[in-house]
Amino acid sequence: MKIATFNINGIKARLPRLKEWLAETRPAVACLQEIKSQDEGFPAGEIEELGYSAIWHGQKAFNGVAILVDSQAGYTITEVQRGLGVDGPKDGEGEQARYLEAEVNGVRIACLYLPNGNPQPGPKFTYKLAWMEALRARMAQIWAEEVPAVVLGDFNVIPEDDDTWSVKAMQDDALMQPESRDAYARFLNDGWTDALRTHNPRGGVWTYWDYQAGAWQRDHGFRIDHILLSPECADRLESVGVDKAHRGREKASDHAPVWVRLKA
C-alpha cells in the first residue's frame, strides 16, 4: 500500500502536474495540501477520470486539504473528521481548512497542513503552537483506538539541523524555532515514527525548495513534509522516498511528493 503526501500549492494551477504524478506513480492514497480551492471548485471529475475517488476540505484562496484514493485498485474512503477545532489567528476568523481524517481499507489517514507561524513571535506563531497541541491530542485519540494510522502532510517544521541546507539562513524562521521543534519531537516521543528520517538517519533529504533566489537550481531546500506512522504501520514500512524530479517540472509546486510503501 503506497501512501503519499503532496503540497500541491494550488490544485487548479498545478492540475496538469498532479495528474502526471498520479498517472506515473499511482499511489493508493494521496494526501494533498494547499489546494487553495473552495469545496465547489475542487476538480473531482478530472481526478475521477484517472480512477481516483476523493474527499476534500476547501477554503477560498488559501489552505485546503484533500485525500485521494485509487478506487480503480479497490481502495475506498470514509471520512472520519475534518478540522481540529482551533480558530485562526484573526479575531472572528473561525477555523481554517487544515485537517482531514479518513478510513481507507483499514488504515486511518490523517492529512494535515500545519500553520506556517511566520512572522514570529506573534499571533501566527501562537496559533501554530496551539494547532500542534490540538493535533497531538487528536493523535493520542487515534493511538488509543489501536488502529493502523498514518499522519502526514506539510508540518511546516524543520525537525533537525540536518533537515535544511542552511541553519543560518533559517534560524529566525518559525519553521525552525525551538518551540516548533519541541512540539514535533513530542509526536515522536509519544511513539510515532518519522518514516523519512528512519530510512535517512543522516538527514540531507529535502522536500521543499523556494521559488526565490534559485533555491531549486542550487538545491537550497529543507524538509517540512513528513509521514508519521503508528507502531502497527511502522512494522509494515517497506520503503520511503521523495519524488524530487517532479519539483523540477514546468510550473511545478515548490514541494515534492513524499511517500511510503507499507507491506500488506
UniProtKB/TrEMBL annotation:
Probably binds two magnesium or manganese ions per subunit. The keyword Metal-binding applies. GO terms for biological process: DNA repair. Keywords: Hydrolase, Magnesium, Manganese, Metal-binding. Residues 4-255 form the Endonuclease/exonuclease/phosphatase domain. The active site is at 113, 154 (proton donor/acceptor), 255 (proton acceptor). It comes from the Bacteria. SUPFAM superfamilies: DNase I-like (SSF56219). PROSITE patterns: AP_NUCLEASE_F1_4 (PS51435). The record marks 255 as: Interaction with DNA substrate. Its cofactor is Mg(2+); Mn(2+). This is Exodeoxyribonuclease III.
